[in-house]
Specification:
Blueprint: H1 10-15, H2 31-39, E1 51-55, E2 61-65, E3 68-69, E4 79-80, H3 83-95, H4 106-132, H5 146-162, H6 164-167, H7 184-194, H8 199-212, H9 216-222, H10 228-235, H11 237-246, H12 250-272
Antiparallel strand pairs: 1-2, 2-3, 2-4
Length: about 280
């Protein structure tokens, strides 16, 4: 075995998580690509015995490994804004057995990327979120077969109808493959609402957006119009249809499981920080 594989150095562990900055397009924006990159690196051994949490002086909460706080890839001490997130983080670290596998730690990956990159990338992320409105998945329904069209309408139309009031406009669905452009007024309204979010909320919503291909579905969840399961079902309607028609593909199923874990980590953060 290599020295790296036998490493008990916390820095070797944190290096596995990478330095993903939301809003920047690189391989880490795709969770499966990031997982494959991690798999190429020998996993370090679990070097700690006890996992605990503790409040810090700034009012946040930290995860401690044998009394030492965990650090992000950029060497920041990891502090989260509430105890519920800290306990979930601690559970991920405590669940590691003989090796530490970042692919099984979606919340840790999300928190690391939040702490290392979101504050500096805030405006770029908001720009990306607003621009997403013109490419939102649920504004591009299928034209056939009829059963798929009906299913999309059942899951998407209530969201499109509901969102008219909070964002102050009517979303247009494409007819066929032609792109549509939504009113900039709605983008301005969305930006105004999310401008003041803390970095953990913004990162979680951005994660949901990239996983679902929609900003309207995360927005509907954030506002309480959709449950997490309803949000996922609306995002997966095309995939579910293809599975029903053609059966499951092993690689696609693995990707879906990985995406659902990242989705659930984002949901956990948003639920924990609801005012």
């Amino acid at each position: 075995m290599s020295d790296k594989e036998n490493s008990t150095d916390p820095d070797a562990v944190q290096a596995l998580f990478g330095d993903f900055v939301p809003g920047q397009q690189d391989s880490t924006t795709n969770p499966m690509m990031r997982a494959k990159e991690v798999m190429k690196t020998p996993l370090p051994k679990r070097f700690y015995k006890a996992v605990s949490i503790a409040a810090d002086e700034e009012g946040g909460h930290r995860v401690l490994l044998d009394g030492r706080p965990i650090r992000s890839p950029a060497k920041h001490q990891v502090s989260v804004p509430c105890e519920a997130i800290a306990r979930a983080l601690a559970s991920e670290w405590d669940a590691q057995t003989d090796k530490i596998d970042p692919a099984t730690m979606p919340l840790t990956r999300l928190v690391n990327s939040t702490i290392d990159g979101v504050e500096d990338a805030r405006e770029a992320m908001l720009d990306e979120i607003v621009s997403y409105l013109n490419h939102d998945f649920i504004c591009y329904p299928a034209t056939h077969p009829e059963r798929l069209v009906d299913r999309q309408q059942t899951l998407w139309q209530p969201v499109l109808k509901w969102v008219e009031e909070p964002l102050g406009g009517r979303f247009v669905q494409a007819n066929g493959i032609m792109a549509v452009e939504q009113s900039p007024v709605m983008g301005q309204a969305l930006r105004a609402e999310w401008q003041g979010l803390d970095i953990f909320q913004l990162a979680a919503l951005h994660t949901m957006m990239t996983i679902t291909g929609s900003v309207l579905l995360p927005y509907a969840f954030w506002k309480g119009f959709l449950t997490s399961d309803a949000t996922w079902a609306a995002a997966m309607v095309d995939e579910d249809w293809n599975i029903e028609m053609w059966g499951e593909d092993e690689e696609a199923t693995k990707r879906r499981v990985f995406r659902r874990a990242d989705f659930d980590a984002a949901i956990l953060v948003l639920d924990a920080l609801r005012g």
